[in-house]
Amino acid sequence: MPRAHLMSDHRRFTDGEAVIEVEGATVGAVIAELERRYPGLGDMLTNASSAGVNGVIHAEPEYLAISPDTDVYFVAPLTGG
Amino acid sequence: MTVTEDRPNYKWVGTRPIRPDGYDKVVGKARFAADLNLPGQLHAAILRSPHGHARVLSIDTTAAEAMPGVKAVVTSADFPELDASNPERDVAENLMARGVVLYVGHALAAVAASTKAEAAAAVAAIEVEYELLPVVLSLDESMAEGAPLVNEHNVTMFVESDGPSNLATVNALERGDVDAAFEAADLVVEREFETAWVHQGYIEPHACVVDVGLDGKADIWASSQGHFRVRSQTAAVLGWDTARVKVTPAEIGGGFGGKTTIYLEPVAVRLSEKSGRPVKIVMSREEVLRATGPAPASKARVRIAATNDGELTAIEGWLGYAVGCTNDMAGFIGAMSVASYKFPNLKLEATASLTNTPKSAAYRAPSAPQAAFAIESVIDEIAQQLDMDPIELRLKNAVVEGDPTAMGMPHPRIGFVECLEAIRESDHYRSPVPEGAARGIGTGFWFNIGEQSSATVNLNEDGTATVITGSPDIGGSRASMALMAAEELGIDVHRITPVVADTESVGFTDVTEGSRATFATGMAVVNACRELIDELKARAATILGVDADAVDWLDGEAVADGKDPLSLAAITAKAKGTGGPLTVTASLNAGGAGPSFAVHCCDLAVDEETGQVTILGYTAAQDAGTAIHPSYVEGQMQGGTVQGIGWALNEEYIYDDEGSMENASFLDYRVPVASDLPMIGTIIVEVPNPAHPYGVRGVGETGIVPPMATIANAISRATSVRMTSLPMSPPKILAALDDR
Amino acid sequence: MKGRQMRYAAPATVDEARTLLSDNPGSQVFAGATDLVPQIRAGRPSPSMVVDLKRIDRLTAVLHEGGQWTIGAATPTADLTRNAEFTAMFPGLSEAAGLIGSDQIQNRSSLGGNLANASPAADSVPALIANAGQAVIASGDGTRTVPAAEIATGPGRTSLADGEFIIEFTLDDPPAGTGDAYLRMIPRTEMDIAIAGAAVRLTIADGTVSDATVVLGAVAPTVVVVTDAEAALVGAALDGGRFDDATLDAVAAAASAACDPIDDKRGTVAYRRQVAGVLAKRAATVAAERAQNGA
Amino acid sequence: MSSMKRSRTHVTCTVNGDEVDFLASDDTSLLDALRDELGLTGAKEGCGTGDCGACSVLVDGRVNCSCLMFAPEAEGSDIVTVEGIAQGDQLHPLQQTFLEGAALQCGICTPGFLVSAKALLDENPDPTETEIRYALAGNLCRCTGYDKIVRSVQEAAVQLRGATR
């Protein structure tokens, strides 16, 4: 099952759990499942996060396909100078 | 000097041809935004608030409208009010205050007139009634219990809102057991730091020329890091369809992040609409300093635990950023830029708070320099206390591929260790420290970003090529695009013309920021070239009468067994008969931007009677992945370094009690001059980024991150005084020496 | 702006300039405008007319005759720093003049403008005063001559009456065994306004100081002549060509004590006071070296 | 007030070898006159106060900030802007070494640096690094950190000395 890694801000929705195993074939599906289990968290991840998958940060990861052994790191969106 | 891992033997990548746009720039022909003039053009001037925070009770423009030469006047009443959910609302309210002015310099009204003098005179005739509101200027004031609200529209981002707040963002990162680690530590060093507001300091003030036609379409020529963003923001602020706005990129005279947002274009659009004439707006230097994006001032509290043999076991800290009058991501990113060391235990909080000062903007590796100043200073102090070589301490703790970043995700292939080793082995570091001087080390890194880019490659009839992209060329990116295309196509780089096209002539491309142009736009160029080569092989197969899969592409020629090779020019010459023009457009959303690390080494002397610092020698090593055009990689490293030296030593915004900047000129906002500096030695480290076809990482951001701590660390070794407040100007250093 | 437009005039003679000034209320002379233009851009009202003094030959002439130098008030300071004979005789004043801004500014800035703008931080003024420069002023129908020290009376204020302007400066050749020096503190190496400056002129005979002048800039509303530092230097003997620490400490202490500085964006009271002392003793050291080597 | 006419002064001077004339209000800077009246937009305004050097031009052979000059001051003078440094299609050695040495990134300060560097080398054909750095201290560059600019001036000086030897 994919593992969702949450930043500490997100953990208030999960009772402090930092890593959650969630079913889902895309990052969007993972977010939807997290929202179902922890109402509010999914919206937060959609609005305030990018996702790091296999060492690559994706800015709009909703449709990104993932395999069952994927680690998905939700990280703050980046800008640059 | 270059330190390179094994890599293919490139013919063009890594060479140093003259940049194609350079000729126009050395003879004065290059057209920057302020150099453009249209027939019948008007000049605009902007009325700016003299108050740091005030309600605008009334604006009376009748006298101004009657002034000689005046053709149009606009205020916020001429713009739609965007609702709170619109992501460009802050941009809209920054470029024309609606009801409340939030800082000294906030635009309130604008006038277009026949001459600059007439526009300025009319602006002075606009009458405004203000009701003064409390001014919040510092981070401490902003965060204080019961502090007055800076901006009644602000709510804290990404948390459930309980109404307006001065808090912009809060971001916390945590792993391991920090308390236990500090308990067990042999050595703990804790320090507090502060840094001042600094400006990007590009030499070209913001400028644009706008012509709105009777068809209702706006033609905009602008100086920006991304003309597609100028288009989207302008359309959003005006409530227009994007298709009504065309933006042509003028040459841009420096940006460093400060030209990733807009200040003028929608104002010029409305003035042009109202007057029926083209309108030009050019900011003065004073306006640039008072009303465009400085980088946040900051405070930090950092505590690091270490063992006696130099293992860094824990970090705990708070980073606070003052971000100006509207919300900003600075604090969010700041906490994440702490990722250079393994730190098994980590607890960091970063907050951003509003102040009645200009809306801050990105500045090279936004928010990382402030964090690195604090952390690299504390780490150096640990090295001093343990009597360890500062590079050895860092090598012992440096992250490598697979180690977690601050937010947990493992680092991809990175070159931090290689940079540390490059400095350790450098002539500079191996040379004795000059008499009367001291040597400091500091490091830094930046993630870099990918984002969307498009490129069109046209092969011309004679085998020359045109490479069209949408990334404004700030520092030689045209040359890099041409080099990558030459490498792919196998033709001479001088047969390639790189072009930066307007928003109607090339596919969407995100702003040039986060060191992404050579990385992401370069990747689009490479993809387009590779598709073209497939097509060239197919055409060659037709010409040669062989199967398509019997053709290979080698060194700019199609080769097939038993046939004479066909040059690219030989194929393009027969394009018409083999299927028509050879042109390919590639677009992508690039992932896999590779973090770039840097390690700096500085020799300096401190005049202990005046507090003046003289930089005697400086060497920067940075991981470029692959340097496409090494001269411009070195240039990015040197430029970022010198901006960092300015940030370290003398640059700062000085505000009076009302929030008016007292030093809004290049006389007193002191950017480094040539005589302040030695040569800046560079070591390009090349640890290729596996996610890019040539291994590019992007080099623009990182150079500015290490200098502040590098210099503070050298000062500490020169004087035994630990400087914790930027800038480390002579009066501050002398005061610290006296307190020693 | 206010409905009137600034005009420009370039008289060829001192008399033409007098007439223009008297005929045009609100007019102002200029040479380099290196302060005037920034002031106007910063919002100061424009003069009704700017009277360019650079086209008057006398105002840009540099003459050395009969043991006296006459320097046109509008002479670009670059002409002084490039004048080898002048620089050999007044190295401190030449260097001070050469510190007024960049090469670009040096081709416009002038001793007259530097003095008449009455900035307490003007770089050339302490050294001009240390060398007992006299200002020849166009006044009424004639001229009057006063010590340069009497021109500036406070920040932006001068003793020049309406219609008066400086024509030229005179400097007597220094006596044998004389050397001068000017040092200033700026945060960068160039392009800044002095936070503190010190000019010292010494005459040394038989290894002992016979005459001393110590003048500070940027540490009070006007330049400060530090008589206590001068007293500490006069009679001081040099050992191996150098002052002893006690003498230098006394000079520094006297200079610091003479300061009446302000806190502003460029420096603090404490910093200016401390650094003025440092600069005074360092300038005294350089001046002594020059006095002993030069003449 | 609306009846007020803006009077303009007729100025005649030599610019890049050509005799030119133009009309300008007395409060117009030479920089604005060059850019707006003569269409020579090579000189740039970076500050308008003489602090950045982007507007540098030669006036009678000496480097000046054209933003600090009133346009009528140019009467009778010989002005060289960046547009006048090359000889026909032959770049000045400084222009060539700036290109080869990557001494420009964004290019906005380049015209001013070229003019100042030319003024330096015209007067001092063999400057030290320190002399170059001080001679160019009135020109701000925010992109390069000055390293490649200084090196390019050094290289141009070598070439110019070679050419005149």
Strand order of the largest sheet of chain A: 2-1-5-3-4
Structural class by secondary-structure content of chain C: alpha+beta
Task: Tell how many strands the DSSP assignment of chain A holds.
Answer: 5
The unreliable regions of chain A are none
Task: Spell out the helices and strands of chain C N to C.
Answer: EHEHEEEHHHHHHEEEEEEEEEHHH
Oligomer: heterotetramer
Residue stretches of chain C low in confidence (pLDDT < 50, at least 5 long) are none
| The CATH top-level class label of the largest domain in chain C | Alpha Beta
Give Rg of chain A in angstroms.
11 Å
Give the strand tally of chain C: 14
The radius of gyration computed from the alpha-carbon positions of chain C, rounded to a whole number of angstroms, is: 19 Å
Largest interface: B-D, 64 and 64 residues
- CATH top level of chain A is Alpha Beta
Per CATH, the architecture of chain A is Roll
Query: What would you call the structural class of chain A?
Result: alpha+beta
Question: What is the helix fraction of residues of chain C, given as a range?
Answer: 25-40%
**Relative helix content of chain A:** 10-25%
What's the CATH H-level homologous superfamily of the largest domain in chain C? CO dehydrogenase flavoprotein, C-terminal domain
Quick description:
The complex is a heterotetramer of chains A (81), B (740), C (295) and D (165). Chain C is α+β, with helices and mostly antiparallel strands and 295 residues long.
If you had to describe this structure to a student in words, what would you say it looks like?
- The complex is a heterotetramer of chains A (81), B (740), C (295) and D (165).
- Chain B contains 21 helices and 29 strands.
- Chain B has 740 residues and is an alpha+beta fold.
- Chain B has a 7-stranded mixed sheet with strand order 4-6-2-14-11-12-13. Chain B has a 5-stranded mixed sheet with strand order 1-29-28-27-19, with helices on both faces. In chain B, strands 8-18-17-16-9 form a 5-stranded mixed sheet, with helices on both faces.
- The longest helix of chain B has 28 residues.
- The model of chain B has no long low-confidence stretch (mean pLDDT 95).
- Chain C folds into 3 domains: 48 residues, Uridine Diphospho-n-acetylenolpyruvylglucosamine Reductase, domain 2; 116 residues, Uridine Diphospho-n-acetylenolpyruvylglucosamine Reductase, domain 3 (2-Layer Sandwich), CATH 3.30.465.10; 117 residues, CO dehydrogenase flavoprotein, C-terminal domain (Enolase-like, domain 1).
- Chain C is built from 11 helices and 14 strands.
- In chain C, the strands form 4 sheets. Chain C has a 5-stranded antiparallel sheet. A 4-stranded antiparallel sheet of chain C has the order 11-12-13-14. In chain C, strands 1-3-2 form a 3-stranded parallel sheet, covered by helices on one side.
- The longest helix of chain D is centred in the last third of the chain and has 18 residues.
- The N and C termini of chain D lie far apart (63 Å).
- At the B-C interface, helix 4 and helix 21 of B face helix 11 of C.
